Structure formats: structure tokens, C-alpha cells
């Protein structure tokens, strides 16, 4: 009986730790406002800054330029985590929507993180944001 109690307590303890790494859909941590026709931001890579603009300056219901970025973000699978240690060599994308910071995406090569309002989420399916080369401005 004591062994069974010890096993049950161990399982309960492990389950409580597992809740700290709760799995989320990206739409649970940030929702793009409707309509979102333009996404701006900045890429920091290898000590350089690269501003980018995805989508037109004025709303055009027929222009779906921002849709690939929105779909990419909503397809991310996230896990709540603590702030990771700072590393060199990471690429950091800051995405702004309607003049306000929406989220950051930190790509470390072997792993990636989404940062929203100072909260960190490890990305279970990391990938590069679909930003075309012609979106980067000088």
C-alpha cells in the first residue's frame, strides 16, 4: 500500500510540473486585429538592423500580402517557458501591427522563442518567418 501511495504521489507531482510547460496555439498569446493589411518590423542579425514592411500603406481588401505572415504565426505551436539565457548569434524579428509592437520571434537555429508582452514561449515547430527579400527597406 505504501508503494502504491508513493507512486501516486510521484505521478501527481510530475503532472503538476508538466502544467508549467502548458502547450498553446499562437492565437492564444496574440491575435491580429481585423483587418491587418500591413505588418512592419525589424530584423536584428549579426549586429545589423534590417527594417521590413509587408503589405501596402493603405488598406486594399484585394491585397493579401500580410496573410502569409499571419498564417505562419497562427501555425506556431508554443509552450510556456521562463526567459532563456541570452545567446549570441540569434536572429530576432520584431513584428509591429498598426504602429504597436505585436510580438518578437527569436530564432536561435536549433530552437526559437516567441515573446509577447515580456512573456516567453518556446516554439515547438520553429521556422523562418515568410518575409520576402523585397520587403526589407534601407
Strands of the widest sheet, in order across it, are: 1-4-8-7-6-5-2-3
Overall helicity: 10-25%
Mean pLDDT: 88
Spatial extent as radius of gyration: 19 Å
Shape verdict = globular
Number of strands: 8
- Unreliable segments of 5+ consecutive residues: 11-19
- Terminal-residue CA separation: 71 Å
How many helices? The count is 2
Q: Classify the secondary structure makeup into a structural class.
A: alpha+beta
Task: Give the SSE string.
Answer: HEEEHEEEEE
Tell me the β content. Answer: 25-35%
Described by strand count, sense and barrel closure, the largest sheet is:
8 strands, antiparallel
Structure notes:
The chain has 138 residues and is α+β, with helices and mostly antiparallel strands. The termini are far apart. Helices cover 18% and strands 34% of the residues. β5 (91-97) and β6 (100-107) form a beta hairpin. Strands 1-4-8-7-6-5-2-3 form an 8-stranded antiparallel β-sheet, with no helix packed on it. The chain has helices spanning 2-18, 67-74, and strands spanning 23-25, 39-45, 48-54, 77-81, 91-97, 100-107, 112-116, 119-123. The chain contains 2 helices and 8 strands, in the order αβββαβββββ. It is globular and about 65 Å long.
Amino acid at each position: 500500500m505504501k508503494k502504491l501511495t508513493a507512486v501516486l504521489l510521484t505521478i501527481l507531482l510530475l503532472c503538476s510540473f508538466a502544467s508549467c510547460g502548458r502547450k498553446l496555439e499562437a492565437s492564444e498569446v496574440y491575435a491580429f486585429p481585423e483587418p491587418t493589411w500591413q505588418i512592419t518590423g525589424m530584423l536584428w542579425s549579426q549586429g545589423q538592423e534590417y527594417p521590413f514592411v509587408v503589405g501596402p500603406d493603405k488598406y486594399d481588401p484585394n491585397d493579401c500580402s500580410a496573410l502569409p505572415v499571419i498564417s505562419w504565426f497562427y501555425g506556431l505551436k508554443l509552450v510556456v517557458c521562463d526567459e532563456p539565457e541570452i545567446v549570441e548569434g540569434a536572429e530576432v524579428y520584431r513584428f509591429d501591427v498598426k504602429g504597436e509592437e505585436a510580438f518578437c520571434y527569436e530564432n536561435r537555429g536549433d530552437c526559437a522563442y516567441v515573446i509577447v508582452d515580456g512573456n516567453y514561449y518556446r516554439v515547438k515547430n520553429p521556422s523562418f518567418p515568410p518575409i520576402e527579400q523585397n520587403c526589407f527597406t534601407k
